[in-house]
Design a protein that fits this description.
Cofactor: pyridoxal 5'-phosphate
Number of helices: 15
Number of strands: 17
Pfam family, one: Aminotran_3
Strand content: 15-25%
Strand order of the largest sheet: 4-12-11-10-7-5-6
InterPro entries: Aminotrans_3 (IPR005814), Aminotrans_3_PPA_site (IPR049704), PyrdxlP-dep_Trfase (IPR015424), PyrdxlP-dep_Trfase_major (IPR015421), PyrdxlP-dep_Trfase_small (IPR015422)
Shape: globular
Protein name: Aspartate aminotransferase family protein
Distance between the termini: 37 Å
Keywords: Aminotransferase, Pyridoxal phosphate, Transferase
Helix content: 25-40%
CATH class of the largest domain: Alpha Beta
Radius of gyration: 21 Å
Bound molecules: pyridoxal-5'-phosphate
Largest sheet: 7 strands, mixed
CATH architecture of the largest domain: 3-Layer(aba) Sandwich
């Protein structure tokens, strides 16, 4: 019997012993093609030598020195790199390091509160986020998350957070409405909510530039984030960009927000930062936020034992070097075009595929009962679960979820292949997904 408190206490799980390129290999020698990087994590595949060597070399010199007293070279170098590559408008910001996306989101929310206190605005307490969204599993991150199912058991313990609609074109864009008009209508929900709560009481707006697991790789309509930036600036509200899943190259630019032409005040990143080699996350504070603290108390009101871990930072720095030296962002864009074309050709006319959406190497097919009415399957039919197991039986790991349509119903399957995938692997992923969706929905 296992003594690991696993996600499922009843399922038997293969024991993975090795990674090789885009494949994971279990104890019995079964090979699994990783089409989703776990959860959009493993951007460099599973056996990157440069990252492994960098981690081993750092381990051999310095692993840990407490940040209350010391800094270290990998942490400094990585922060300078991220600030230099940040979306225009971030300015001379700073970066703090944490261990997971949820921790980064907690730290971001607290940093927003600190910013307003340093500026003498203690009434700014309200947080506005979107639904659907996912921002992590710790109580603060779960509170701002807009995923009804995941919030439900903990609802009485969550801090107060407000939600507007995520810009979910497939279901919310009206017939005849242009993309720009839809973008404005959705973004103006933020203006309305700020007015309702009282403009001087809102601390921050939180949104993923490309929505991840909760909605399935949903980019924003054109102009959406420009309007969000305007609204936030007008009311002194900070914009926190959650790039935990969509950042670090996944959408074809290092930061997903670069493609929207704005910068956030605070940005979180995690998964692709360590690419699965190191558990590392980061919070980037823009110059505006840093200056408020410098001009105020001069101290960060947040601390964790493992911040700026030298081995984790060295691993992430090696991941960034790999992305640049192998020009993997271009690879994401070209492979992404192939993946999109493959999905549209294999599934575009499928009777149970309502929408195909994404950007870069981040793509989703939303599966519906009735393509004409967009009616989702009943949650109890668990089409997402069926797709997961069907694809796995064919040797391909995908990331299906439920809840995109209304928080409970709505099945989608998300793909986030390694940036280092071959063309043949991308084609195989498409072919297996098409078979999987057909088999999971057969006779339904
Ligand atoms: C957008 C987003 N934010 C935050 C998180 C939380 O990250 P972690 O699971 O590392 O705590 C996730 C995880 O899936 C995520 O997708």
């Amino acid at each position: 019997m296992s003594h690991v408190l696993r996600r499922s206490l009843t399922a038997t799980q293969p024991v993975i012993v090795k990674g090789e390129g885009s494949y994971l290999i279990d104890k019995d020698g079964t090979r699994y093609l990783d089409a989703c990087g776990g959860a959009a994590v493993s951007s460099l595949g599973h056996d990157n030598k440069a990252v492994r060597d960098a981690v081993a070399a750092q381990m051999a010199t310095l692993s840990y020195a407490h940040t209350g007293l010391f800094t270290n070279e990998p942490a400094e170098e990585l922060a300078s790199y991220l600030i230099a590559r940040a979306p225009k408008g971030t300015g001379q910001g700073r970066v703090m390091y944490l261990g997971s996306g949820s921790e980064a989101m907690e730290a971001a929310l607290k940093l927003a509160r600190q910013y307003h206190l340093e500026n003498g605005q203690p009434d700014r307490v309200h947080l506005i986020a979107r639904a659907p969204s996912y921002h992590g599993n710790t109580l603060g991150a779960l509170a701002v998350g807009g995923h009804a199912g995941r919030r439900a058991p903990f609802a009485p313990m969550l801090i107060n957070a407000h939600h507007i609609d995520a810009a979910y074109g497939y279901r919310l864009q009206r017939d005849g409405e242009s993309e720009e008009d839809f973008a404005l209508r959705m973004a103006n929900q933020l203006e309305d909510r700020i007015q309702t709560l009282g403009p001087k009481t809102v601390a921050a707006f939180i949104a993923e530039p490309v929505v991840g697991a909760s909605l399935g790789s949903q980019p924003a309509p054109k102009g959406y984030f420009k309007r969000i930036r305007e609204i936030c600036d007008q009311h002194g509200v900070l914009y926190i960009a959650d790039e935990v899943m969509c950042g670090m190259g996944r959408t074809g630019s290092l930061f997903a927000l670069e493609q929207e032409g704005i910068a956030a005040d605070i940005t979180t990143m995690a998964k692709g930062l360590g690419a699965g080699y190191m558990p590392i996350a980061a919070v980037m504070a823009s110059q505006k936020v840093v200056k408020a603290i410098e001009d105020g108390t001069g101290r960060l009101w947040n601390g964790h034992t493992y911040m700026s871990h030298a081995v984790a930072c060295a691993g992430a720095l090696a991941v960034m070097n790999e992305i640049d030296s192998r020009d993997l962002l271009s690879r994401v864009r070209t492979l992404g075009e192939r993946l999109e074309a493959g999905l549209r050709s294999a599934l575009g006319q499928h009777a149970h595929v309502g929408d195909i959406r994404g950007r870069g190497l981040f793509w989703t097919a939303e599966v519906v009962k009735d393509r004409d009415t967009k009616q989702p399957f009943d949650v109890k039919e668990n089409i997402a679960g069926a797709m997961h197991m069907t694809a796995l039986a064919k040797g391909v790991i995908t990331y299906p979820s439920q809840g995109c349509a209304d928080g409970t119903h709505g099945d989608h399957v998300l793909l986030a292949p390694c940036f280092t995938s071959t063309e043949e692997e991308i084609d195989q992923i498409v072919a297996v997904l098409a078979e999987t969706i057909s088999e999971a929905t057969a006779g339904k």
